């Protein structure tokens, strides 16, 4: 794997810390999923993955939980291959 450049998410530990902080949720179930996700995949995330994750984090806790538990599917602006990829990884956690 290539070394991350200074402009990428992975090259900046402060960006990674901010993303982890932003992923903290009000619902314990969401927190547990994100905790497992970051433990397994944090160092492998691409900038596209980070962008997709950021879009998911804009959702309310309940909307996000419905997506994570497959009670709802991606719609509208969220229905992109990048977001679907990250959601699939989150659902596997």
Task: Explain what this protein looks like in three dimensions.
- This protein has 93 residues and is mainly alpha-helical.
- The chain has one domain (27-92).
- 59% of the residues lie in helices and 0% in strands.
- It has helices spanning 13-22, 28-41, 47-57, 61-68, 81-92.
Essential attributes:
disordered N terminus; mainly alpha; globular; about 60% helix; about 90 residues
Q: Sum up the overall morphology in one term.
A: globular
Share of helical residues: 55-70%
> How would you characterize the largest beta sheet?
none
Order of helices and strands: HHHHH
How many runs of DSSP E, i.e. beta strands? Answer: 0
Pfam families: Sdh5
Protein name: FAD assembly factor SdhE
InterPro entries: SDH (IPR005631), SDH_sf (IPR036714), SdhE_FAD_assembly_factor (IPR050531)
Subcellular location: Cytoplasm
SSE layout and pairings?
Elements: H1 13-22, H2 28-41, H3 47-57, H4 61-68, H5 81-92
How is this structure best summarized?
It comes from Pararobbsia silviterrae. The protein has 5 helices and no strands. It has helices at residues 13-22, 28-41, 47-57, 61-68, 81-92.
């Amino acid at each position: 794997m290539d070394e991350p450049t200074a402009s990428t998410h992975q090259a900046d530990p402060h960006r990674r810390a901010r993303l982890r902080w932003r992923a903290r949720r009000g619902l314990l179930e969401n927190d547990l999923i994100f905790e497992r996700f970051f433990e397994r995949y944090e160092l492998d995330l691409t900038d596209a993955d980070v962008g997709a994750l950021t879009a998911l984090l804009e959702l309310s806790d309940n909307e996000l939980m419905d997506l994570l538990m497959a009670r709802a599917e991606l719609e509208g602006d969220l229905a992109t291959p990048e977001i679907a990829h990250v959601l699939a990884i989150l659902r596997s956690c």
